[in-house]
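User: Hi! I'm working on a homework problem where we have to compare a predicted structure to a textbook description. Could you give me the structure for the chain below?
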Amino acid sequence: MGLRENAAAAAGRTLKTDDLLDEMDRGRAPEEYVPAPDPMADYEPGDDDPEMVPVHIAWLRVRKEVRAIAKREQYNGGGTRFNFRGVDTVVNTFGPVTLKHGLNIFPVGIEAEHRDTTTSKGNKMRECTATVSWMVMGPKGDTLPMLLKSRGEALDSADKGTAKAQSVALRVLLLTGGLTPTHDPDPDSTRVERGETPVRPAATYLDEICNPRTSAGRLRQIHHELGTTRQLGALVTNEVGDEEQIGAMVVRIGKERAAGGAE
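Assistant: Happy to help. Predicted structure tokens:
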């Protein structure tokens, strides 16, 4: 008895049975791949359900409705004062509109960094910087082709810093992805003329130039200032009552004092 016959006998089969099974396998047609049924294939929206549109169209509709969010909250403390758009304000604005158009926004990844710090008053705080990856899903179950990332920072004296930082990251995502303006006045809508620094008249330097205690360095600086304002040729009455160009006067007095100090 050969090996094949021994194997068939050990399994309680005969060689004839094995041949029959092989023949059946050869005659069996290959099974066709049948994809899993689409759970949304037969779905029909109800009166309160969003229209089944692609995710990018749903997000565009959200942007059309959320026109702007003004900076109505105000921080005023520690000598600093500014207006801002808080997390609750942004979420309360986007929440109902995304629900209306069937958009879901899920955090699918977070990278958090922590460090200990102190306030200006010496109180110990825990700082968290969180980078959050978001998935935006539309009413049909499709998602935007890439994960969106946003970053948030927060301080907390207990264990809420990470949660706060994620909330800030969500606000950044909604405002940035929604291109949401504030409707504050545009910086280019106003124009302020810069006032020129008034030019010091040449005659006002006379007392300082003639003062024996004025250093040589200060005389050189005065000469530079007069040159910058193009007044070196201005005529003034010098220390002996004669008219003289102030630039030449500064040079002359500087040389006289240098010569006198050398004697």
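For your comparison, note the following. The domain at 55-183 is CATH 3.30.390 (Enolase-like; domain 1). The CA atoms of residues 220 and 250 lie 8 Å apart. Good luck with the assignment!
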